[in-house]
Amino acid sequence: MAGSSPRYGICRYCQERFAQTIGPGRKREYCSVGCRSKAQRDRSGKTGQHKAPTALPLGRRIAEDLQALSAALLEAEYDGRPLQELLRCASSVAREVDYYTAAAVQDARSQGSSWEQVAEAAQLSVTTARTRWPENRVRERLRRRAAERAEVQEPLAPMMEGPNAAADGQLSKVAERASAKLASALSHLHRSSGLTIRDVGERTSLSPSYVSRILSGERTPAWAVVGALTELFGGDPAELSVLFESAHGKVPPAQYAITDAVDRLHAALRGLHLAAGRPSVGVVRSASHGALSVQEIDDILEGVLVPGWEQTSALVTALGGWPADVRPLWQAVHYTFLLCMDPPKDPQSQSADPSESA
Questions:
Q1: How far apart are alpha carbons 240 and 250 in whole angstroms?
Q2: According to the 3-state scheme, what is the secondary structure of 114-138?
Q3: Helix or strand or coil: residue 20?
Q4: 105: closest CA among 76, 66, 75, 131?
Q5: Of 97, 290, 291, 308, which is least surrounded by CB within 10 A?
Q6: How is 289-306 classified by DSSP, letter by letter?
Q7: Is 349 exposed, middle or buried (0-12, 13-18, 19+ CB in 10 A)?
Q8: Which residues pair with 20 in a beta bridge?
Q9: What is the largest CA-CA distance in the chain?
Q10: What separation in angstroms does the CA of 276 have from each of 105, 186, 215?
Q11: How far apart (Å, rounded) are the C-alpha atoms in residues 325 and 245?
């Protein structure tokens, strides 16, 4: 349906948003067959010894967003913003901390922790802990949070230069961070090339002062300049394409061909690796605290492995990036894959599918 905006649902299992099929027929309740299967195992295992653990920690997703909110509060403090704005930022952080606490408790319970252990960790009575964080209430709160965030920021909005006012603040922060990473990547390539600033100016017809401002992050150049400098320094412009788009406030389209979505994710990760000075896989593994193996890191950076979110988040963090900034790119891969696996059905050919009744 050309021109239609994609619809999104919230997975009943992992609480993540996913692309919903458009048209008649029953809407999906889970983002993937895997989540549906895990939900079935949870239901059937309630009489067993313990529940199956959640595929991805709920708290980790919220902690990633807390990183961005806390940075916004710190920047507002440094800028001497009015008290009203400082308190508004602080309120956002406090609300997200509250969501994180509930999610962390749910994660612990899903991993087999008893209410006695939760109460001890939270320094509360068992009765208070049970009353404050029952599973059904936590799940409902996280669903409400996901819906609130979907209204404020559409992570896969059409490519545009002027985002809506509600998302402008968040996108500007992403752009600032991407601009700094772009400058770091170009600076690393420049140092590796052995060229002086004067050499660069002579070969590109750019003034040495302008080149210097680009490499220091004072100026974010046009793509033609980024491409020319990258090629002059012996690099691959494709590795900087996603950083460049983010630095200019551009948001990826809702849908890509699966290969394009994967290529963009890999380009973003290689761009962060370049911005970090291309550390060895051993150094990256140490920075990930063992969350990634040397082989996984090498395969991801080489474009051989399409990482899961836990791998992506760990790699981005190890490279000094912000997982929340890269999440839309990873989601684009995930959503596109799901759409390929479950395309909109022809209403005339629909029939009851026993597997969908789960």
A1: 14
A2: CHHHHHHHHCCCHHHHHHHCCHHHH
A3: strand
A4: 131
A5: 290
A6: TTSS-HHHHHHHHTTS--
A7: exposed
A8: 7
A9: 74
A10: 34, 11, 14
A11: 12
The single residue listed with the structure tokens 């002579």 is 202
Full-model pTM: 0.55
Contact 169, 75 (CB under 8 A): no
Q: What are phi and psi of 167, to 5 degrees?
A: -95, 0
Q: Are 159 and 252 in contact (CB under 8 A)?
A: yes
Cα separation, 228 vs 232, in Å, equals 6
**135/103 Cα distance (integer angstroms):** 10
CA 276-255-332 angle, to 5 degrees, is 40
Q: Which of 182, 197, 155, 79 is nearest to 324 (CA)?
A: 155
8 Å CB contact between 58 and 107: yes
* pLDDT by position in tens, the chain (length 358): 444 444 556 676 666 666 655 554 556 676 666 676 666 666 554 434 443 433 457 888 788 778 777 877 876 787 778 898 889 888 888 988 999 999 999 999 988 899 999 999 999 999 999 999 998 888 888 888 877 765 554 333 333 333 443 445 566 778 888 899 999 999 999 999 999 999 998 898 888 898 999 999 888 888 889 999 999 999 999 999 999 988 887 765 555 577 788 888 999 999 999 999 999 999 999 999 888 999 999 999 998 898 988 899 999 999 999 888 888 888 888 766 655 544 444 444 444 443 333 3
Six token digits for residue 163: 């985002």
Inter-axis angle of helices 323-341 and 58-78, nearest 10: 140
Both tokens assigned to 8: 């999104």
- Residue 8: strand, helix, or coil: strand
**Structure token pair of residue 352:** 């009851």
- Please state, in angstroms and rounded to a whole number, the distance separating the CA atoms of residues 291 and 230: 32
Contacts of 65 (CB under 8 A, 6+ apart): 96, 324
- 7-10/17-20 β-pairing: antiparallel
* Angle, in degrees to the nearest 10, between helices 309-318 and 258-275: 20
